[in-house]
Amino acid sequence: VFIGEDPRAIQANSTLATLLQRTSLFDGSADNILDNASCITLKLPVSATVNGQQVVINTPEDFLVVEAIFDASNDDTDTLVLDFPITAIQADFTEVVLADANALAALAQGCGGENQPDDDLECADILYPVSVSIFSPSQELIDVEILEDDEDLYDLIEDLNEGDIIATIQFPVTVLLADGSRVDAGNLEQLEAILQSAAGTCDEDDD
Question: What's the pTM?
Answer without folding.
Answer: 0.83
